[in-house]
């Protein structure tokens, strides 16, 4: 008689998530934590203390109220010692401070029960955590919070320098395998300066990527087919796992400004935001305000007066002038507090998004089918704007340059906004992208399939 052997029940994997500084990093990590939780994993979320912004600490406390069974592992940073690479950007100072405190985290991770199966860490800490794999016998995954396209550029950075440490460039273009020639002016200048801390950090982190178990990207195959293919064909790095767009999680807070949006015509409103840590110059804010007024388009503007929210105290009236607010009372609305961007983009009255093209904003617009008028300001944003254009999700006026490069005049802004808000083919293509994003998230979709297989492999390792 045949004996039946019962396979022991495999335990759900225990995964720790480790984000770096700023909302652009925290939000995708929180979303991923909620997704892992809803797929049966045990989740520990590492919270860096203190945070740079009030938005980070507010979001963390809301999140743990909503998900009481997700464990919070407080990671207190050591007193910060300025290094030779530091500039004055509080987010980079925080990033550096996190990197130099990482060793404090080891004993905390080691003492977790049940023991960890894997850690998903932010790209900027890669080189610092790589030996966790052998020290703690766990899998290491890296989540990069940018596009597959910009990630390809970062990944190729060490090969871009010639023997004299200058960038190999051909007629103003660089070659990234699989992506064709890319305009060198789209690469953040700091990245092309091998002595700059930004380039130094990226080079050291991407050099460790062959040793990790996988690289997670909040994107999906039909949005960035070229870049994802090129990365998959690169035998020098770990498997690429495009598992986006990440699902959003419910927030208990009252939604902002939705009543005002409810009163507007379908697809009539332009939403304007430059993300969580970019403030336009005072003069550029004035030109944008005048451009909006001249365009006569309906608008909802999430205004920022300074980089860090705790310092952003000036009243809207003082920045824009009371007469602007009075004159545009029936045309638009300006807010200065944190808004729930996903809810706004999902509202039927919103027909366009003037965006700096931070990657989270781009992927949210793709997921919700809202066309983008791209105005990249710094960092990865021009390369992300290329993704927007290539994917048919929006349009980018290259002449506007980087944020601080030139003053864009109100008449020019008004003209482009009017053209953009006509919608037409762009809106059709954005809606097609929304369908593709939904398909990627379906049970057998490209992104969901990869995520499930990754979790299965972790379960079977137990
Ligand atoms: N965001 C938001 N409300 C705000 C400002 C930003 O919900 O008032 C969110 C936005 O939806 C996105 C993130 O914050 O998820 C910003 O990330 P992104 O990569 O777009 O830009 P960054 O802030 O990193 O420049
Ligand atoms: N980055 C890194 N090491 C550094 C600095 C940056 O790995 O020392 C990566 C990081 O993953 C980030 C990307 O470079 O997402 C682009 O940086 P940027 O400042 O444009 O974006 P943000 O920090 O707003 O995501």
TrEMBL record:
Pfam family, one: UDPGT
Highest taxon of source: Eukaryota
Keywords: Glycosyltransferase, Transferase
EC number: 2.4.1.-
Listed GO biological process terms: glycoside biosynthetic process
GO MF entries: UDP-glucosyltransferase activity
InterPro entries noted in UniProt: UDP-glycosyltransf_plant, UDP_glucos_trans, UDP_glycos_trans_CS
Spans traversing the lipid bilayer: none
Protein family per UniProt: Belongs to the UDP-glycosyltransferase family.
Protein name listed in UniProt: Glycosyltransferase
């Amino acid at each position: 008689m045949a004996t039946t052997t019962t396979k022991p029940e495999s335990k759900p994997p225990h995964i720790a998530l480790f984000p770096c500084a700023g909302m652009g990093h925290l939000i995708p990590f929180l979303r991923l934590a909620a997704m892992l939780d809803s797929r049966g994993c045990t989740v520990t979320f590492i919270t860096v203390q203190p945070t740079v912004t009030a938005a980070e600490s507010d979001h963390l406390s809301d999140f743990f109220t909503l998900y009481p069974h997700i464990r919070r592992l407080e990671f207190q940073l050591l007193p910060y010692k300025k290094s030779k690479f530091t500039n004055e950007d509080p987010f980079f100072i925080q990033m550096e401070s996190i990197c130099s405190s990482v060793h404090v985290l080891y004993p905390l991770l080691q003492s977790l029960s049940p023991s960890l199966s894997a850690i998903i860490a932010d790209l900027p800490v890669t080189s610092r955590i790589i030996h966790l794999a052998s020290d703690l016998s766990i899998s290491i995954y890296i989540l990069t919070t940018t596009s597959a396209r910009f990630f390809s550029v970062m990944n190729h950075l060490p090969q871009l320098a010639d023997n004299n440490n200058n960038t190999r460039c051909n007629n103003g273009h660089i070659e990234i395998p699989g992506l064709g020639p890319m305009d060198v002016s789209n690469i953040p200048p700091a990245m092309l300066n091998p002595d700059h801390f930004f380039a130094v950090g990226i080079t050291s982190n991407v050099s460790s990527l062959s040793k990790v178990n996988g690289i997670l990207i909040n994107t999906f195959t039909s949005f960035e087919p070229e870049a994802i293919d090129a990365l998959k064909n690169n035998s020098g790095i770990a498997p690429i796992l495009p598992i986006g767009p990440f699902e959003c999680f419910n927030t208990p807070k009252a939604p902002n400004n939705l009543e005002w949006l409810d009163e507007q015509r379908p697809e009539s409103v332009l939403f304007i935001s430059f993300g969580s840590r970019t403030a336009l110059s005072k003069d550029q804010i004035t030109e944008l305000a005048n451009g909006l007024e001249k365009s006569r388009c309906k608008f909802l503007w999430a205004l920022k007066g300074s980089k860090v929210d705790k310092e952003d105290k000036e009243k809207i009236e003082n920045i824009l002038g009371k007469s602007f607010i009075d004159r545009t009372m029936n045309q638009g609305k300006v807010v200065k507090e944190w808004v729930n961007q996903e809810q706004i983009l999902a509202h039927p009255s919103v027909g366009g998004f003037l965006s700096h093209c931070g990657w989270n904003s781009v992927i949210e617009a793709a997921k919700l089918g809202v066309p983008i008028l791209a105005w990249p300001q710094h960092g990865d944003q021009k390369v992300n704007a290329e993704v927007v254009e290539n994917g048919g999700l929006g349009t980018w006026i290259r002449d506007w340059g980087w944020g601080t490069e030139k003053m864009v005049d109100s008449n020019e802004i008004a003209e482009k906004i009017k053209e953009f808000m006509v919608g037409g083919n762009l809106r059709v293509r954005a809606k097609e992208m929304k369908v593709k994003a939904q398909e990627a998230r379906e049970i057998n979709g490209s992104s969901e399939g990869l995520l499930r297989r990754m979790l299965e492999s972790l379960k079977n390792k137990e």
